[in-house]
Structures are given as C-alpha cells and as structure tokens.
Design goal:
transmembrane, four-stranded antiparallel sheet, mainly beta, 5 helices, Immunoglobulin-like, 2 domains, 19 strands, transmembrane helix, globular, seven-stranded mixed sheet, membrane
Length: 327
C-alpha cells in the first residue's frame, strides 16, 4: 500500500487520462456500496490519501477535520440483537423515531444538505425500488443533530476503530441507528467529471436517491455491468436486511436484451415473488428486473412474452460481502 501526501495527490489528479500513476476514479466509484470507507485520525493533523495497489482494496483516509465518507450499506442486524443505550435514547427523544427490529431504530432525515453528496444527472425517469435507503448519523454535519446523538455516534465509531486508527464514518451497525432518507431508485446516471468520465460517455446503471433541493444523489454503482455485453448471462445484485423486522432480500438483476416480459424471484424456502420488469426503458436493449423477497434469494427466472424461459439463474455461493455483491 502506498501513502502519498495531499500535494502528490493533486499532482496525480492533474495528470492525463493515460498517466499510469493517476488513481482510476471511475473504477473506484464503481466498486459498489459494500466497500467500507474510513476516516482516520492522523498524527499532526496532516491529511493523507492511502491508495491501495488495486482499486478493489482502496480506502480514503482523511484527517479528522470534519471531512468524511459514508458507508450506507443496509446492514443485516441480527434478530436477537438488543438496542444500544444510544438507540434507546434516540427512540425516546427523536421525533418520529421508530424501532424496526430488536436491535435497530430508524429516525427521520434532518432538513440538511449532505456534505458528501455526489449529485448526478440521470437519463430518463428513474424507477423506485421496494426498499428505502438509509444513512448513518455522522453522514451529516454535527449541527443538524442533538449533540448527544452525533457525539455518541462518533464516540462509538472511534471505539470500533481498526488497529491503524481508522474508523467507519456514517456507520449504522455500530449503534443500531439508521437515518431514513426516503426511496431509492434504479437509474441510468451520467458520470461526473471528477470520476474521470467524458461528456460523451453513456450513462450507467446506478442506485440514486432524490433530494428535491438539489436533484438526484449517487449512492452506489452496481459493481459491474458485464451483463450489458451481448450474450452475457444475468447478473444479480442482492442486499439482505432486517430493516423491516424480518430478514428480506432486495435484488436487482440485469440482462442483455429487451425481451424480458416477466420475472419470478424465488426464496430459499420456495416463496415466489413476481418481480417488476423494465425492458428497454432505463437503457435501450437492456432489461432490469427487481423485487424484495422474504428470507434469502435463491433463484431468478426470466421469461419472454410467450412464456418461454430466457434464463433460469441460480445465485452462486459466496463467502464475503464483496463476493456476494454480484451473484
């Protein structure tokens, strides 16, 4: 792992697209939402960027100066977890707070612009997905929360720091407190210039949220878009959560071609859920299907208008969050 100071970083970012020392911002942004970003407490207050040898393990470490990055993963809180003392206080004192399972409390989003929001332009009309999106308390500025809530969350995040002193910012699993920012959408988002995108680049599938004061905010890419290649098999992007009380899986699948007319999502216990189909609407000649199913997802079957099976896709086994992101 290479450590560079902020001046070296600026020099690399100013390099040309072919500069081998320049961070691959497009790849970094497309890694998916399960990459944990961390904020580090650095000696002497000097900011540093740690760029891993491969984009797959890169982490941005900034000085403890109020800058942050967020980890907005929907965490599957174990059903036997208990409320933390901070979550109990939030439930009692934050207007609109509600307990969603034995170990998690959801609170309303404050009236505030996110200081780390990545605003993007989208092509066409985004499609709402079945599950809301959630942030952690420290995703926002400290001033929008009661001091005890922000400081208590940050203290818990620091207590869960890695051996090198870095710690998660905007986490939800550490305290069991989630901020409900409203619906999430599947969209075709145009790349931002600072990600290394070109104005002529096409849009790519992404998950966004709608902040009416400033438009759509990029939350995460789908990790890969190999399914857009002619003849490629279905790819499934699944996320498990106890946010509704019981374990459910939200799954979005991408398929090459626009012939999909119907899709069945099948849980491990055999429960079948009819998925929503977007064929040729979000992206020309591409299909997306999605649904939320009880328990763990096992298979997705896509059919054409005549009822013929286009693909019967069984989710492959996986061991780590990164491996399980694309199945």
């Amino acid at each position: 792992m290479n450590t560079i100071d902020i001046h070296e970083l600026e020099g690399q970012l100013a390099g040309g697209p072919g500069d081998p020392g320049r961070p691959d911002l497009v790849t970094i942004r497309r890694l998916g939402h399960r990459r944990r970003r961390v904020r580090g407490a650095l000696a002497g207050g000097v900011a540093a960027l740690v760029v891993a040898g491969s984009a797959g393990s890169g982490a941005l470490l900034l000085g403890d100066d109020g800058s942050t990055a967020r980890d907005s993963v929907t965490v599957a809180v174990p059903p036997d977890a208990e409320l933390s003392p901070l979550a109990e206080r939030a439930l009692a004192e934050i207007p609109g707070a509600r307990q969603v399972n034995s170990g998690e409390v959801v609170i309303p989003a404050p009236e505030d612009r996110l200081f780390m929001a990545q605003r993007v332009e989208v092509v066409g009309q985004p499609v709402e997905l079945p599950r809301h999106y959630y942030y952690g308390v420290t995703t926002y500025r400290a001033s929008v929360w009661p001091a005890w809530l922000y400081e208590g969350t940050e203290k818990a995040e620091r207590a869960a720091a890695e051996p090198d002193g870095s710690y998660g910012a905007g986490t939800r699993d550490v305290t069991g407190i989630s901020v409900d920012v409203g619906p999430r959408y599947l969209a075709c988002a145009l790349p931002r210039a600072e990600w290394g995108g070109d104005p002529d680049d096409p849009c790519s599938p992404a998950i966004v949220t709608d902040h009416s004061d400033s438009g759509y905010v990029f939350e995460y890419g789908l990790g890969t878009d190999d399914f857009l290649t002619d003849g490629a098999p279905m790819e499934v992007f699944a996320e498990e959560s106890y946010i509704s009380g019981d374990l459910t899986t939200l799954a979005v699948a991408g398929l090459d071609g626009a012939d999909v007319a119907r899709a069945e999502f099948i849980s491990a216990d055999g429960t079948r859920v009819e998925g929503q189909v977007e064929a040729g609407t979000l992206m020309t000649e591409e299909s997306f299907v999605f649904a939320e199913v009880p328990g763990t997802l096992a298979r997705i079957v896509a059919y054409d208008a005549a009822g013929e099976v286009i693909e019967d896709h069984q989710l492959r086994d996986c061991d780590t969050p990164v491996e399980c992101e694309v199945r």
